[in-house]
Design brief:
The protein has 106 residues and is α+β, with helices and mostly antiparallel strands. The protein contains three helices and six strands. The protein has a six-stranded antiparallel β-sheet with strand order 1-2-3-4-6-5. It comes from Lachnospira hominis. InterPro entries: TfoX_N. This is TfoX/Sxy family protein.
Length: 106
């Protein structure tokens, strides 16, 4: 099941206080970037983030879920209605997120 654009727009609205939030569509789902780093994505209308240590500390009771079959487990963000919580989570995670790999030119 693919995620719908309405859910994406809602999450982007909740993150609107952060600068440099962008997304890319991939196979009907959405990968979320914060200041050039992949923070997580929207899969089946669920906000999932990378399970970096700071995210686990920020959401100690968050369940791990698979974004799709064969993928690595990610943390489910259940407090999507709390704008302050979401912006705090993304800010807390940023320093631990790996830099995006640069694509090689052809």
């Amino acid at each position: 099941m693919a995620s719908n654009n309405e859910y994406l727009e809602y999450i982007l609205g909740q993150l609107s206080e952060l600068e440099e939030i962008i997304y890319r569509t991939m196979m009907g789902e959405f990968i979320l970037y914060y200041r050039g780093k992949i923070v997580g994505g929207i899969y089946d209308d669920r906000l999932l983030v990378k399970p970096v240590k700071s995210a686990v500390r920020y959401m100690p009771a968050a369940p791990y879920e698979l974004p799709y079959d064969g993928a690595k487990r990610m943390l489910l963000v259940e407090e999507v209605n709390n704008k302050k919580f979401l912006t705090g989570l993304f800010d807390a995670m940023y320093a631990e997120l790996p830099a995006s790999k640069q694509k090689r030119g052809k």
